[in-house]
Each structure stands twice: as C-alpha cells, then as structure tokens.
Amino acid sequence: MQIPPRILAIGGATAVAAALLFQPVAAAAPSTATSVSAKGVGSICSSALPSQAHDTLRLIDAGGPFPYRQDGVVFQNREQVLPSQTRGYYHEYTVITPGSPTRGARRIITGRQSQEDYYTADHYATFKRINFGC
C-alpha cells in the first residue's frame, strides 16, 4: 500500500485524523509556489465533483486500499498543464468511471500541500483545482 505524500509530509495518522475531524471554514489562498497560473487549470467546488471523485478523495486520505495498482504513482506532468514542480511532487489516482471497462479518463492529482488536489475528466488535457471551501 502506498501512503499519499501529503499524508507523509504532515505526519501519517495525525493527518488522517485531522482530515476526518476538521473541515476547513474557507479555502486558503494558494501560495506563490503552487499558484494556479498554468494553462488549462481552473477550479471546481468539491460539491460539484462526481460521487466517485469523493470516494477517491476518501481513499487518498485513508491511505488506500486503491482499486488500481497505478494509483499513487508519480504524476510526471508531461503535458505541463499543472504548475511546474520537482519530480515526485504530484501523484495520481483513478476516479472510477461507471460502465467503463478500463480506468477511464478521470483522475485526481494530488500535490504535497494539504488540499492541493486537482480533478481531470479528460485524461490530463485540463485540470480543475478542487475548492473544499464551497
């Protein structure tokens, strides 16, 4: 089982407990290091995500188990749509697509910072940063 890097960065079980117990009152403004200024990046309210994306976010926060062996691998940002970061900064997870015989095109990409999550429904062509405050 792979543990998401954002959980490792802030202390494993403590981070999981904090994520489960505390809901943010408002989303913090992104730092300049992770500013969403890259092409093709917008935002989406967490309430507007498909239910399967919420399932994936819960699995990420719990550290798995994940439905696909590729879940948790390093996302290389080859398309350079997300803000540029060092290799290993981003990780990807499958958002199950009902009726699809494959993993489908939907993913959640996590950054190392807490709540730095991006959703793509078109296999990395565009991303929306998930806003947990709406």
Structural notes for this entry:
It is built from three helices and six strands; from the N terminus they run ααβαβββββ. Strand 5 and strand 6 form a beta hairpin. About 19% of the residues have low confidence.
Layout of helices and strands, plus pairs?
Layout: H1 5-10, H2 13-21, E1 41-45, H3 51-62, E2 74-75, E3 90-94, E4 107-110, E5 117-120, E6 127-131
Parallel strand pairs: 1-6
Antiparallel strand pairs: 2-3, 3-4, 4-5, 5-6
- Taking all residues together, what is the mean pLDDT? 81
Oligomer: single chain
Computed structural class: alpha+beta
- Work out the helix count: 3
Strand content is 15-25%
Q: Uncertain regions: pLDDT < 50 for 5+ in a row?
A: 12-37
Q: Rg, please? A: 14 Å
Shape: globular
- The helicity comes to 10-25%
Number of strands: 6
Following the backbone from N to C, one meets helices and strands in this order, namely HHEHEEEEE
Largest sheet: 6 strands, mixed
Amino- and carboxy-terminal Cα gap: 31 Å
**Going across the major beta sheet, what is the strand order?**
1-6-5-4-3-2
